[in-house]
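Instructor's aside before we start: the two examples that follow are unrelated to each other. I chose them only because their records fit on one page, so don't look for a connection. First example below.
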Amino acid sequence: MVKPWRLVLASASPRRLELLCQVGFTPDVIDPAELDETPRRGELPPAHAIRLAEAKARAVMPRHPGAYILAADTVVACGRRILPKTEDEASARSCLELLSGRRHRVHGAIALASPDGRLACRRVDSQVAFKRLSETEIVAYLRTGEWHGKAGGYAIQGRAAMLIRWMRGSYSNVVGLPLFETAQLLAGRGYRPPWLASC
């Protein structure tokens, strides 16, 4: 079946691609926005997530006229503090030590540009609580390398799952994309995946 509209994923995240494909929303094009994701002075985590998702969609829109552009951002926050995407072991350790024995929030934002140029955004919040981590557990997790490039220094879909004692809200949001809300947003704007289009 030929899809009437193209779906462009404005993200280089393999996790977002896997999640989309899991529910049958396979993008026609992957075109990352490549933006500076540095938080603005005084910017709160929820606002930061929405701003980046919108900016990513707007950056990619001109390159794909007449397509659906899906962009997203995931922010891990401990209180008002935005945790980084960890690129080195020291920053990953710092995040794990901060999250140890505490609850934190994962703010997921999605932005969808329709073929007519309209932009819609949604934000989803999940709560996650780590057990109190021992030094042995921190060292062992750092050795896995799963923390690399992950917001907050962990991947809930990996070995970190055994370190998390409690979670509330969307699991897929913590992984990188809130699937229910993404599907609802796409459907509300007239996009249906091929496996549903014939129903």
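Example two begins here.
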Amino acid sequence: MRSCLALVLLCGLAGGCASPAKVPVSILAMPPDTSAKAAAAMTEGDRLFRTKDWAGAAQAYQAAAIQQPTLAEAHYNWAVSLDRMGSKAEAKKHYLEAANLAPGNKVIWDSPPLRETGFNHNLRQKSYLDPAPGQRF
């Protein structure tokens, strides 16, 4: 009985010390109050993103952000698309813009360059979305 309890306790401690799993970054849905023109661009961006047409998706999300500049989800999705293309510096600008527009959005604030260690991110990585050396998804 004691050894069983010790084993359960040991497993609990080991699990508590493990680093949290990296959550894959994906696009955000548009909010209900999105303007019609921005919504059309977001829908097109979502379609292109699902087909892995990162450049096309980035253009569509850019159009949505132009139509509705305060749409944090457009900037975030634009950033994710740019990141997938390897445009890390440009992506970071839009991750930051999305965070400024949506201060309470946990998904946006957990984006790669805004994470606790994100500002010291490995510059050798093509994208924030690439796993760090020795890290797997």
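DSSP finds six helices and no strands in the chain.
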